[in-house]
Amino acid sequence: MSKNNQSNIFKDFNTSPFKKELPPKNDSEKTKKELEYLSTIDLDKKFFQEKDDLIGNFFDFLDSKKIKYDKKQLRKIVLDAVDVILELKDYFKRPRPFKLDHDFKDPLLKSTKGYSYPSGHSTQSNLLSLVLTDLYPKYKKDFDKIVDDIVFSRQMAKAHYPSDIKFGEKLGKSMFKYLKDNNLIKNNLKESIRKILKEESKKIEFSNLFKRKLYVVDQVIDNVVKQMYSCDYEDANEFFEGVVYDMSWLIRNSDFGLNDVEWLDIYDYLSEFKKEEILQYYTDRCPDNAS
Known about the structure:
Elements: H1 29-39, H2 45-52, H3 54-64, H4 71-92, H5 97-100, H6 120-135, H7 140-156, H8 162-181, H9 189-201, H10 210-227, H11 236-252, H12 260-285
Helix pairs in contact: 2-7, 3-7, 4-6, 6-7, 6-8, 9-10, 9-11, 10-12, 11-12
């Protein structure tokens, strides 16, 4: 992928393997059959327009279930994926179905401009569904249904071939794996810290001295700050508050053994002695967001 946008969460995602997966040729039998299939689907304009806003479909569901979620992060994941999608669309230059078959009408929406392969809506909805399923596994079927409706609406509008949809699904899965492998999903942070905390807590198995607890907290903070956080905070101070909040939540909800008074002492320690170090780390790693 192009390295022009260094703040893009997918800036190091490798698109090269996907450029080997060519779409069917315009005059191929495969494309002909795909066009015939699309001709059997009647257009429900209201349904298509409702599903065009893929982020809104997921957010509406989460809101209906009163689920707390990081809207900023989810929106960034979806929007940053556009650079990868457009790179591949421009590489393959596959015309949309309504460009090949003049019996099909152009839906005349912003999202149906440009090329067809891969389907952006398929890529982004599959990616977002996997992220949300990872965070809220009990709603997997609901997220899958949202994806099914979105990708069907794109075929209904003659904006995509089935092979566009399938390629988008494969791309979305690979992009999700990239996020997981690089610890770029912030809401997984608590589980990641919990694992570090569990390892570090072994060091105090035979000692409950506060200074030992403080040492372990210090080690956990160092590990967490260097490994787990991405550059999606407004500034370095918000980042610091996020670190403190996550540590507070984990320590209070674990077998770490800190009481409220001890936690207040640790908070003072973080604010007095660790804050500048944490702020400097964020400034170095995320210079565009640090001011």
